[in-house]
Amino acid sequence: MIHKIISPVPFPEGTVNSYLIKDDALSIVDVGTKTPEALEAIKKGIKDAGYQMEDIEQVILTHHHPDHVGWIDAFPNAKVLGHIYVDAWLRRDPVFINSHYDFYLDRLKEEGVPEEYYFWAKKMTRSIEMLGERTLTGVIHDGDEIPGHKGLIAIETLGHAQSHFVFWNEEKKAMIGGDLLIANISSNPLIEPPLNPKAKRAKSLLQYNASLKKLLTLPIDKIYSGHGSEITNVQELVHERLERQHIRAMKVLKLLEERPKNIFQINVEIFPIPYKSQLGLTLSQTIGQIDYLLDQDLITEVKDENGVYWYAKK
Ligand SMILES: [Zn+2]
Questions:
Q1: In whole numbers, what is the pLDDT of the chain averaged over residues?
Q2: Which pLDDT value is given to residue 13?
Q3: For the chain, how long is the longest CA-to-CA vector?
Q4: How much distance in Å is there from the Cα of 166 to the middle of ligand 1?
Q5: Model confidence pLDDT, tens digit, residues 167-178
Q6: β-sheet with 174-178: strand ranges across
Q7: CA 313 to ligand 1 center in whole angstroms
Q8: By CB neighbour count within 10 A (0-12 exposed, 13-18 middle, 19+ buried), where does 60 fall?
């Protein structure tokens, strides 16, 4: 049995989906945002399916974003399962959490962002306020079968988040997909701090494309998505998303024809209006396209004496 529960989100996405699944165990995948309205919606959804909050045996998390992990505290008898990166968040690991501000500031510097925008490092640092108080009781690894749900396999699909899993049932040809693929909006491969503060930043867009390509290898009939409606045209949608991203990258490549530019300069040219109010999101986008062009061997990267990276067309 799979039962969809929609709860409100105080962000542009509008709503988020949780899925109640019943096999040998009764579990819920993702638990909404930490607002009273979301809790009410989740409680009602569980009641409509014929259960109480106390009946839930496992909370399974697709990723650590606040609209998916908000109400882990609301299930007194449930184990909580998720990625090791979710664990660091929920434990509020001090080394990890305290590294975030410096991580974002270092990125702004190497992207050539002018000092007047350095306050964005604080804005980009995700708050722990929207997280539940509990921690994980078990860590999920790539390829694990979810306890109590025979045939439901976790597939690590990083990119949108550094903690992202989808859950795939080959027999039913069905997947619980988190935010890997969303019907009406393209999922943003955000730049997020690494688990080990000394590690390099992940190339989120490349990870994301690799995760999308994993979907092409599976005979999926239906994806139960983290937001919006179920997806049945998986192959078509994946090709469309990859194609659209390639076109965006080609636009960036054109901007590098006359002279080398840094990420901030490119960002201002691509997002002349939104870059000021949405610097974090737009930079994430631009970095992604640059990572892609580097990976395709179409541009070069040079670091100057101030630590700023410059990109030129090959
Ligand atoms: Zn998310």
A1: 96
A2: 63
A3: 64
A4: 12
A5: 999 999 999 999
A6: 152-156, 165-169, 174-178, 222-225
A7: 33
A8: buried
Task: Break the chain down into helix, strand, coil percent, rounded to 5.
Answer: 40, 20, 45
Q: How far is the CA of 307 from the centre of ligand 1 (A)?
A: 31
Q: Give distance in angstroms: CA of 227 to centre of ligand 1.
A: 9
Spatial neighbors of 257 by CB under 8 A, at least 6 apart, are 313
The closest of 62, 12, 84 to 167, measured between CA atoms, is 62
Domain that holds residue 14: 2-92+131-232
CA 94 to ligand 1 centroid distance, Å: 22
Structure tokens, 63: 């990723």
How far is the centre of ligand 1, averaged over its atoms, from the C-alpha of 263 (Å)? 24
The CATH number given to whatever domain includes residue 301 is 1.10.10
Residues 271 and 160 reside in one and the same domain: no
Ligand 1: centre distance to CA 161 (Å): 6
Q: Give the chain's domain count.
A: 2
Q: Is the same domain home to 301 and 227?
A: no
How many whole angstroms from 254 Cα to the centroid of ligand 1? 31
pLDDT for the residue numbered 186: 86
Same domain, 203 and 119: no
Per-residue model confidence as pLDDT tens digits over 20-78: 999 999 999 999 999 999 999 999 999 999 999 999 999 999 999 999 999 999 999 99
